[in-house]
Amino acid sequence: MRFRLTPRETSFYDMFAASADNIVTGSKLLMELLGADASARTEIAERMRAAEHAGDDATHAIFHQLNSSFITPFDREDIYNLASSLDDIMDFMEEAVDLVVLYKVEELPKGVDQQIEVLARAAELTAEAMPNLRTMSNLTEYWIEVNRLENQADQIHRKLLAHLFNGKYDAIEVLKLKQIVDILEEAADAFEHVANTVETIAVKES
């Protein structure tokens, strides 16, 4: 790690950790959605919306701190990219839950549970990794594993699409379900973007 003669603004670390912890909350709500009946899904969606708003607040706090800090712990562009990618994850998860409710989906197709399990694991890893930005230690296994999970998510997504187009569902239902599984795939991609940004930061700081 490079030796620095100037002090650095350290509150970013706490804010990134808080943002990642909020994503874990979102992933748990996704898991809860799987076992919920239609009547319970609206309440879950409301809690997810509140979590998404909390994520927005965390992101805005990071941007405000970035704009008001003379010295930052690492490159400003990387701070912006990391905060934005974390925010994207929450946005995608909230959108998926909202669409399940709005579309009145009675039963999610087989394989969505696997998608959500991948997202939940990626959320846990991301929350564990954020505090390590302080020392840039124990991060390599994190971004390797998240990239592996994203590859797994791609495979699950392709199988889900094949299932949706096998003739079991009518055309309107296919459109609804495809949009939901596509958004969950976007969430997996966003986790990979976070991991790639962390890798970029670690390489620059080494």
Automatic annotation (TrEMBL):
Superkingdom to which the source organism belongs: Bacteria
Family: Belongs to the UPF0111 family.
Species, as recorded: Streptomyces inhibens
Protein name stated in the entry: DUF47 domain-containing protein
One Pfam family named in its UniProt record: PhoU_div
InterPro entries with a match to the protein in the record: PhoU-like_sf, Put_Phosphate_transp_reg, UPF0111_domain
